[in-house]
Amino acid sequence: MIFDKPTHIDLLDAVSYFLKEKIQGEVPPHLAFKLRIVENVLNIVKREIIDGEILSEEIYEDLRKLLDSDSASINDLAELISNGHIDLENDDLKRLLVKLSINKMKIDNPNYSTLKKLVE
Predict the structure, then answer these.
(1) What percent of the chain has a predicted confidence (pLDDT) above 90?
(2) Is residue 1 part of a domain?
């Protein structure tokens, strides 16, 4: 990449730090809560930039195997489930759905207690 410092991750970290350390203590509680929401959004974006592609590819690899198609998508899977063309008792489907949920939680909030239990 032609861009050096600061990276997009560095910039997200700087904004997050500024909001949390410099601003949050200086605003009324209702605005501090809103700042925490903004900080959470920034952290989701950061995790998605760092890990999103790898976590998505893991799912698409399993999805392609399950549906035996190089162009399989989540929408294709949803349609097959909706139309009853894939058995909900299928062990590969169950593993895929659990993995999909885990990977989404890793981006959304890796501190979920449920996620910690699932990955143990």
Answers:
(1) 78
(2) no
